[in-house]
């Protein structure tokens, strides 16, 4: 195997394993098992020199393929679950380097068995350097990827806008197809991987910059506070010019349009009604980690909050009705719109276990409703009906949680 191709393969793995653990391993094993027997692929990249009837190695053995297929499927399903996705984002960074190194050794063992035997028998620096390149590089790139995903989860943890799902599917395709093209065109694919990593790194830095710009120094104590905060979280000094929050809950440059409603708008974005810091737990009974203010201080605040969110329903139904005029095309923006406007303000404060059955029950019902969107006239009611049902289901679950958890305490909306 030429040195350039070997180095390109090792470098490329660091970018592909930044997204998934078992999906690229399975894709590599399948490619090396099947592709050498395809005439128009057998002479490309790492496949050159592999006989079509080559005996399977440990990496392309039937047992390995079955195990990797099961693990890859579990991984794909796990990344489509909000709770599992957050857990994997915290732990898989430590697994990816080992998986990348195993894949590198597996690919080389198939495409150049003489090389791998010499590598394992060499007591010099070659194994160490390759291990550092593949393992260390994967650890760094996965950190960048996880940072971007973590920032997306912070602003939209329930994926109401659909951005996390889109990013997740893109990662799946990148991990599976990327390995295939890396084996066929190692040098070219490395260039694309480096470009993708550069874009991902730029996105991470932009998100960090945006977070810094959303804060300013408190006029009293100098500590950074969110521009949308009503009070400083450190010294409780009132913010003289609080700004509004965006649909994703970030501070904007717009002045607050209605100071009376502002604390409720902050809570709707899962931010503290006082200092605008993010609430970390999925519960109605919790305190801000920055200033100690409760999310829902009393029943009066909850009632006013519920009135604010429910007042959006008529507008949401009209907008969803207009979007229903466009079958399929209007469905996706309609769902995103009503989720952000009248579902997320309730669902953000419900635990994962509590919303699991609600979510899947609603999904089954909605699958049936969507089938009628093509029916003239009847189809116009599909998206508004989905919006109304979603709002009602999650509102009732939220109010039940409030009656169970929120105590009677002094109002915090004053």
List the helices and strands and how they pair.
Elements: H1 3-16, H2 22-34, H3 62-78, H4 82-91, H5 96-111, H6 113-121, H7 126-155, H8 163-184, H9 186-213, E1 215-217, E2 224-226, E3 243-245, E4 251-255, H10 262-268, H11 299-310, H12 313-323, H13 331-347, H14 352-370, H15 382-405
Helix pairs in contact: 1-5, 1-7, 1-8, 1-9, 2-3, 2-5, 2-8, 5-6, 5-7, 7-9, 8-9, 10-11, 11-15, 12-13, 12-15, 13-15, 14-15
How would you sum up this structure, described in words?
The protein has 414 residues and is mainly alpha-helical. It folds into 3 domains: 3-212, no CATH class; 228-295, no CATH class; 313-405. It is 60% helix and 3% strand. It is built from 15 helices and 4 strands. The chain has helices at residues 3-16, 22-34, 62-78, 82-91, 96-111, 113-121, 126-155, 163-184, 186-213, 262-268, 299-310, 313-323, 331-347, 352-370, 382-405; strands at 215-217, 224-226, 243-245, 251-255. The strands form 2 sheets. Strands 1-2 form a two-stranded antiparallel ribbon. It has a two-stranded antiparallel sheet with strand order 3-4. Strand 1 and strand 2 (224-226) form a beta hairpin.
Quick overview:
The protein has three domains: 3-212, no CATH class; 228-295, no CATH class; 313-405. Helices cover 60% and strands 3% of the residues. The protein contains 15 helices and four strands.
């Amino acid at each position: 195997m030429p040195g350039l191709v070997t180095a390109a393969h090792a470098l490329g793995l660091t970018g592909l394993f930044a997204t998934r653990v078992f999906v690229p391993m399975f894709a590599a094993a399948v490619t090396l098992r099947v592709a050498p027997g395809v005439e128009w692929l057998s002479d490309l990249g790492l496949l050159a020199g592999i006989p079509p009837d080559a005996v399977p190695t440990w990496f392309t053995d039937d047992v390995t393929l079955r195990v990797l297929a099961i693990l890859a499927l579990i991984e794909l399903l796990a990344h489509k679950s909000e709770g599992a996705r957050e857990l994997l984002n915290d732990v898989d960074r430590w697994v990816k380097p080992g998986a990348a190194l195993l894949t590198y050794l597996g690919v080389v063992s198939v495409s150049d068995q003489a090389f791998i035997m010499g590598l394992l028998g060499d007591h010099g620096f070659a194994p160490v350097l390759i291990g550092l390149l593949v393992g260390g590089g994967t650890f760094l790139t996965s950190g960048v990827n996880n940072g971007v995903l973590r920032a997306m989860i912070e602003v939209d943890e329930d994926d109401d806008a659909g951005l996390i799902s889109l990013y997740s599917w893109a990662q799946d395709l990148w991990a599976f197809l990327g390995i295939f093209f890396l084996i066929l065109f190692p040098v070219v694919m490395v260039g694309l991987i480096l470009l993708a990593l550069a874009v991902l790194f730029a996105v991470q830095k932009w998100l960090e910059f945006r977070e810094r710009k959303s804060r300013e120094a408190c006029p009293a104590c100098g500590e950074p506070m969110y521009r949308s905060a009503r009070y400083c979280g450190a010294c409780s000094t009132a913010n003289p010019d609080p700004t509004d929050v965006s649909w994703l809950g970030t501070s904007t440059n717009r002045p607050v349009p209605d100071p009376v409603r502002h604390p409720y708008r902050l809570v709707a974005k899962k931010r503290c009604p006082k200092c605008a810091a993010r609430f970390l737990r999925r519960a109605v009974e919790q305190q801000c980690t920055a200033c100690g203010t409760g999310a829902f201080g009393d029943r009066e605040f909850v009632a006013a909050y519920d009135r604010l969110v429910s007042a959006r329903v008529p507008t949401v139904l009209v907008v969803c009705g207009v979007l229903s005029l466009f079958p399929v095309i209007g469905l996706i923006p309609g769902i995103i719109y009503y989720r952000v406007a009248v579902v997320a303000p309730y669902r953000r404060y419900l635990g994962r276990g509590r919303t699991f059955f609600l979510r899947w029950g609603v999904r089954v019902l909605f699958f049936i409703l969507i089938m009628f969107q093509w029916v003239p006239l009847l189809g116009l009611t599909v998206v508004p009906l989905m919006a109304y049902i979603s709002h009602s289901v999650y509102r009732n679950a939220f109010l039940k949680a409030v009656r169970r958890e929120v105590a009677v305490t002094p109002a915090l909306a004053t």
